[in-house]
Amino acid sequence: MHKPKISFIICVYNMGNTLETAIKSVLSQTYKNFEIIIVDDGSVDSTAEICDKYKEKYPEIVKVKHQENKGVASARNTALGMVTGDYVFFCDADDSCGNTMLEEMVKAIVNHNADIVAVNVNKVTDGHVERLDLIKEEEIYSGTNHDKVFYSFYGDRRTIATATHSKLFRRDLFDTITFIDGFVYEDKRIMHRLLDSADTIVFCNKGEYFYIMNDNSITHARSLKTERDDYIATVDRYDYFISKRKEEKLIQLATYDLVDRLISYYSQGERVIDNSEKKELVNQLRKCMNEPLFKKDKKYASKHMKINIFLLSPKLYTTLFYKGNRFS
User: Fold this and answer.
1) What whole-number distance in Å separates Cα of residue 328 and Cα of residue 323?
2) In this predicted model, what pLDDT tens digit does every residue of 223-260 receive, in sequence order?
3) pLDDT of residue 296
4) Residue 220: is its pLDDT beyond 60?
5) Pick from 48-57, 71-80, 158-167: least confident
6) What is the three-class DSSP state of 169?
7) 219 inside domain
8) What is the domain range of residue 229?
9) Do 171 and 36 belong together in one domain?
10) φ, ψ of residue 220 in degrees (nearest 5)
11) Would you give the end-to-end CA distance of the chain in angstroms?
12) How distant, in Å, are the alpha carbons of 98, 124, 149, 193, 194 from that of 244?
């Protein structure tokens, strides 16, 4: 059996309290043909010392790069430039991998000549493991079945589809696709492109990735910037599916998702978003409503009243219907 070399990428900023757990989980893999690339993105805690300790202890396996703080996207692009493996796996510095995870994923690569392999994600909160089992049996997306993978962006499996963690990617997929510097939701901006560029994608029901719930992580520390970046990423995915003329059901799902994200972003930032941006948001919403596939769908009727109230008076909509956090 061909044994592809795997490059684990761990990008880290001030995660000295969790980094060793992530590294040890990689080192404990039963499949051994791998390297670990750690990019320290300007940490000021014990992170740098931990990185160097493992580089000295495992010089044939661990590579370390220290750089000025530039953000996750920049750190990942730096790491991709250091890769020597056939496939890449992104492991967050506060997460961990089950010890047979890589072995099971490599089997899927070999058996199906896969370009991307995704594995089940377990959620860990205060030490309690919630086994989501979002992948109940092996799924293969290729040929005429390929585009059905995009449905995983919507519903309870969106974590599997949207995040770059918990996946193996063929290295050359990143020859033309890179992370966008300065952008918080860097995964969401590129995952649809990576999946679309892959000929064969496998969702593997064996092996486990442990996603540690961390209140200090970027995705949990919500701000106007994170909400705006989330909205921009949603627009980007919507425009991509429209431009690629994907099937009707997928465009409908992308439209619903964009409408919900747009209204949520507007409602949260209503007090601080300037008038020109508000106008752009309203125009984008009108564009979605005029999408024929959205207008003819039965679900449109149930959203019709609230959306039209929003278009009539976003402030009134926010007062009547929005119960979430608002920035000021």
Assistant:
1) 15
2) 899 999 999 999 999 999 989 877 888 888 898 899 99
3) 65
4) no
5) 158-167
6) strand
7) no
8) 224-321
9) yes
10) -95, -20
11) 59
12) 37, 37, 15, 11, 14
CA distances to 32, 112, 178 from 102, rounded to whole Å, are 9, 15, 24
With a CB cutoff of 8 Å and minimum separation 6, the contacts of 282 are 311, 314
Residue 262 CA to residue 33 CA, distance in Å, equals 44
Chain Cα centroid distance, residue 125: 19
Cβ neighbours, 10 Å, residue 303: 17
Q: Which residues touch 156 (CB under 8 Å, ≥6 apart)?
A: 134
Question: Is pTM, for the whole model, over 0.90?
Answer: yes
> Which of the four pLDDT bands, split at 50, 70 and 90, describes residue 321?
confident
Closest Cα partner for 20 from 78, 86, 93, 118? Answer: 93
Rounded CA gap, 12 and 92, in Å? 8
Q: Which run of H or of E encompasses 181?
A: none
Do the domain assignments include residue 114? Answer: yes
Tell me: the pLDDT tens digits for 138-155? Answer: 999 999 999 999 999 998
The contacts of residue 268 (CB under 8 Å, 6+ apart) are: 224, 227, 322, 324, 325, 326, 327
Mean pLDDT of the chain: 91
Same domain, 309 and 187: no
Summarize pLDDT for 111-130 with one digit per residue, the tens. 999 999 999 999 999 888 88
What is residue 215's predicted lDDT score, i.e. its pLDDT?
A: 62
Residues 79 and 184 placed together within one structural domain of the fold: yes
Do both 189 and 237 map to the same domain?
no
Length reported for the chain: 328
Q: Give percent of the chain with pLDDT exceeding 90.
A: 70
